[in-house]
Fold this sequence. Notes:
single chain, alpha+beta, 5-stranded antiparallel beta sheet, 14 strands
Amino acid sequence: MLSDDAFSALMNDTCGQPWYVVLSKPRQESVAEQNLIRQSYDVYLPWLKKLKVRAKKELVPTYVPLFPRYMFCRARDAEHSIAPVRSSYGVTSILRFGMELATVSPQTLLYIRNLELKADRAGYEALTPFKPGVQVRIRDGALEGYEAVVTMSDTQRVQVLLQILGKEHELSFTPGQVVPV
């Protein structure tokens, strides 16, 4: 994710060039970004912070592209053509609407950046899918297939209330052992 200073430098609109929407090859956003930067283009690839189950045990924060396969790019000056972007390694094409290249205003990019920063500051409670009251399905062990209700969770444990034979039981699982319904 870009630092605030790097983003401010990108948004410096002294060159007057439009921002284009670039489509990368599947799961090659970072490759495309690095190749475009190497060719002296301004590139903005927004990231989203998410929690991911690691080794079926704990939830860890990870970053994924906010818009999978899409990023924003512009030439640094009027003499720099946007045409080579299409043949850059990791890039599929520049998004078009008919014959018109898709452009994005700097204000829209600023709004996207604010969303990115808000998600980055979010803590575990805001990001977890295992909030109290959420129904989950057990996907591991002897109770596989049973559904339960989350009572509490943290990065390493999800505590659920499970009803078996008319009785409620409070059980604890790792985040990899349950999945939201």
